[in-house]
Design brief:
By secondary structure, this protein is mostly helical. It has three helices and no strands. The longest helix is centred in the first third of the chain and has 17 residues, at about 1-20.
C-alpha cells in the first residue's frame, strides 16, 4: 500500500512540474529565417539578369550560418570579386 502511495505522490509531483508555463517565442524573426534585411544591389541584378532569368539557376553568395561545415574556416566572399567569377561561369 505504501508503494502505491509513493507512486501516486511521484506522479502528482511530476504532473505539477510538467505543467509549468513555457516562455513565449521571440517576436523578432531569427537570422536566416526571415530576420535579415538587405537591399538588392548591382550584384543581385546581375545574378537575376544573367542566371535566373536566362538559365533559371540560383546563385547564393550571401552568408548563411546554417549551410557551413563547422570543421572548416569559411569567409564570406567579397562582393567586389564576384563579377569576375560570374563572368567565368
Amino acid at each position: 500500500m505504501k508503494t502505491y502511495f509513493n507512486i501516486y505522490i511521484a506522479l502528482l509531483l511530476w504532473g505539477l512540474v510538467s505543467c509549468q508555463k513555457e516562455p513565449s517565442l521571440p517576436k523578432t524573426p531569427l537570422i536566416d529565417l526571415g530576420g535579415e534585411i538587405w537591399h538588392k544591389g548591382t550584384i543581385d541584378e546581375i545574378i537575376y539578369q544573367e542566371f535566373v532569368k536566362s538559365y533559371n539557376i540560383e546563385i547564393k553568395y550571401k552568408w548563411s550560418p546554417f549551410e557551413i561545415n563547422y570543421n572548416r574556416t569559411l569567409v564570406p566572399p567579397d562582393e567586389a570579386r564576384l563579377k569576375p567569377v560570374f563572368k567565368a561561369i
